[in-house]
Amino acid sequence: MKQLVLEDGTVFKGEGFGSERESMGEIVFNTGMTGYQEVLSDPSYCGQIVTFTYPLIGNYGINRDDFETVHPAVFGVVVKEHCVRPSNFRSEETLDAYLEARNIPGISGVDTRKLTKIIRRYGTMKAMIASSERSPSEVMKMMEDSPSYNNQVQHVSTVKPYVVPGRGKRIVLVDFGMKHGILRDFARRSCHVTVVPYHTSHEEILRLKPDGVMLSNGPGDPKNVPEAVETVRNLIGRVPVFGICLGHQLIALAGGADTMKMKFGHRGSNQPVKDLETNRTFITSQNHGYTVALESLEDTELMATQVSLNDETVEGLKHRTQPVFSVQYHPESSPGPEDTSWLFDHFLKNIEKTNKRTKEEPQCLNVQI
Length: 369
Description:
Helix 8 (226-235) packs across helix 9 (246-254). A ten-stranded mixed beta sheet has the order 10-12-11-13-14-19-18-17-15-16, with helices on both faces. The N and C termini lie far apart (89 Å). The chain has ten helices and 19 strands. The protein has two domains: 2-147, 3-Layer(bba) Sandwich (Glucose Oxidase, domain 1), CATH 3.50.30; 153-358, 3-Layer(aba) Sandwich (Rossmann fold), CATH 3.40.50. The chain is of the alpha/beta class and 369 residues long. The model is unreliable at 364-369 (pLDDT under 50). A hairpin with a 4-residue loop joins strand 1 and strand 2. The longest helix has 19 residues, at 342-360.
């Protein structure tokens, strides 16, 4: 037996599965009906215990093709029921076996509807998956004494640069906790991608002579990576930039806007977003707990291009004069709809326009008479 203890003192009893270890993190919920493998392997969940609102998880098993990273960073899993006999022709192991092999604890038999309502009402909070032998007061004391976990990006970013070769546009992808789906979209477009660590300076990035720079998704508060904000600030105006999720928030901070923590965030694969320029609505995949403050965009060179239809938070930005834009959601989906994969093509078109304009600009010649 295990227990899930929330920071506010709420206790849920359940059966343990996966790893036997205890784990502490921020409790969040994901509303997706499918895609649990991609969610569990999404680096953006680093430091978090994920509650799945769909009642049965693990029914199609785990396969080799749907991972978003090699080493998952999620701190724990909470479900109503986990399937012990998955049925799918691609299934290679059970959810229980996968979590055990990756040392990730899970708890099942939890009333996830009640848990989700608590999170929606009171907001995200600390939680701990613990042995039922511990008293709830002991667990709460452990959470109270535990320091805040603020180095999520450092934990999930690549340590060294590496290349995914291609014959097309040369992209530098700054890894703040990158999902493999982003690489797949660039590979599909034959791009030559150089992935670099989160703390790479703008000088090092520009030395790679990129056609464009991609700022990836990632976990945590964007204000916890001030070095990245400085890097982005120095890239704007020198090279086309595209940001996703955390990259979107870093562009906002670099442009002089502000970000703030949301009550319970957006996590799921059916989030409606409205494009303010075309009035089109897209269904998107999202996973974030911070958002760009709309009012902070005033007196900056950034403007909102898309908003959430659920709560009107900022979902898209663009620079007024430079080829820089970003979205809060995941156009690479994984899991989720592919309504917005065209954004990668838009990024490449920005690059082509910038290259064409650069070539057409008159060159100053040093002529001695």
